[in-house]
Amino acid sequence: MSEREEAVFVCGEITMRKDARIYVAGHRGLVGSAILRRLKSEGYSNLVLRSHRELDLMRQAEVEAFFKSEKPEYVFLAAAKVGGILANNTYPAEFIYENLMIETNVIHHAYKAGAKKLLFLGSSCIYPRDCPQPMKEEYLLSGRLEPTNEPYAVAKIAGIKMCQAYNRQYGTRFISVMPTNLYGPGDNFDLETSHVLPALIRKFHEAKIREANLPEVTSGLKRSAPPTSSERSERSSPVSSVTIWGTGTPRREFLHVDDLADACVFLMNRYEDSEILNIGCGKDISIRELADLIKEIIGFKGTIRYDRTKPDGTPRKLLDVTKITALGWKPKISLQKGIERTYRWYVENISDK
After folding, report:
1. Is 152 known to be catalytic?
2. Fold classified for 8-187+254-284+317-333
3. Which SS3 state, helix, strand or coil, does residue 181 take?
4. Which of 88, 126, 247, 275 keeps 20 to 30 A from 8, CA to CA?
5. How far apart are CA 16 and CA 20, in angstroms?
């Protein structure tokens, strides 16, 4: 057995060596950057990274040349075009085309280059719109998809089926995981393309600044002197509002991206099945409750308005996490702590840009 073929086996499963060549596709994105942080924290040192400028994953020739040259042993496929309801509705062709191209190129050439294992990151939106709750892995393809993100969901389902087909025909070890709604440092806070949680953080933060009509004074932000009594009185008056799409009744499950990264490394070392695996916390919250929580964390005193002319999207999305829990993994970061950390990161890195 050659050095490249050596592996550590635990309970019949392959465990990554600390010096294994590991490629993280999309290492600058929300998920990829979290996986990269996790790998580094666990002592993995031989990491293969390429920016979009260095390697365009939609170009087959570039991907083929990369895999032939670098021959990564393990691949985390975290590169994808992602966005919220508005982005999915506005750019459906881009969402299906770009994701299909990235998936097919990376999965196929990982196989051709002899990668020992690949982890494909799907999305909970693959499940039917009116799926029974919580959503079990076997509910995939059991009903109609949510129309607002159907092209993206179809692309992700294609990636899952591609991994399963390659495992069946070629004997690869390609696994697919379905994370719930994610958030955390490195998130997208653009109001036109972001998901609901980062969008709410930005909306409430900016509304608080308008409300106060003062320099930023929240945790992590600087001001030259403590607020006067009149300033405090002005801030306590609900002089501004935040508008949220829909009714606020849909329920969503949220997982901090660092917990997802922990789960991905855990599964790369322990999971070998072709069947998809959900990653979540097993608890959900309504958009209205989420908005109230973010409002409290940020300290916004104004009002919340709901634009009922806008779509709600899927009524509820809660993953059944029985299988991953049985493997021995659970999330560690509570929603409140996670939002507090994310808001602190936003304040320090984004808000004044």
Report:
1. yes
2. Rossmann fold (3.40.50)
3. strand
4. 275
5. 6
Name 342's Cβ contacts closer than 8 Å, sequence gap at least 6. Answer: 183, 184, 185, 187, 197, 198, 201, 256
Return the amino acid letter for 56: D
Provide the pLDDT for residue 12. 44
Do 129 and 142 touch, CB atoms closer than 8 A? no
Which pLDDT tens digit goes with each residue over 27-77? 999 999 999 999 999 999 999 999 999 999 999 999 999 999 999 999 999
The region, left, alpha or beta by phi > 0 then psi within -120 to 50, assigned to residue 251 is beta
Tokens describing residue 45: 């040192």
Query: What pLDDT score was predicted for residue 7?
Result: 40
Which of 23, 111, 127, 152 is flagged as catalytic? 152
Structure tokens at 248: 């606020």
104 residue type, one letter: T
Q: Regarding beta strands 251-252 and 285-286, do their DSSP bridges make them parallel or antiparallel, or are they unpaired?
A: antiparallel
Q: In what order do the strands lie in the sheet with 174-179?
A: 47-48, 22-25, 74-77, 117-121, 174-179, 277-279
pLDDT at 312: 86
Q: Which residues contact 266 (CB under 8 A, 6 or more apart)?
A: 327, 328, 329
Please state whether beta strands 13-15 and 8-10 pair in parallel, antiparallel, or not at all (unpaired). Answer: antiparallel
Low-confidence ranges of the chain (pLDDT < 50): 1-12, 214-238
C-alpha 319, offset from chain centre: 14
Q: What is the pTM of this model?
A: 0.86
CA torsion 280-282-286-291 (nearest 10°) is -50
Phi and psi angles of residue 241, each rounded to the nearest 5 degrees, phi first: -140, 165
Helical pair 287-298 and 196-212, crossing angle rounded to 10 deg: 40
Number of continuous H segments (helices) and E segments (strands) in the chain: 11, 15
pLDDT of res. 213: 65
Q: Would you state the pLDDT for residue 83?
A: 83
To 5 degrees, how large is the angle CA 295–CA 299–CA 303? Answer: 50
Structure tokens at 34: 């979290």
Give the model's pLDDT for residue 353. Answer: 60
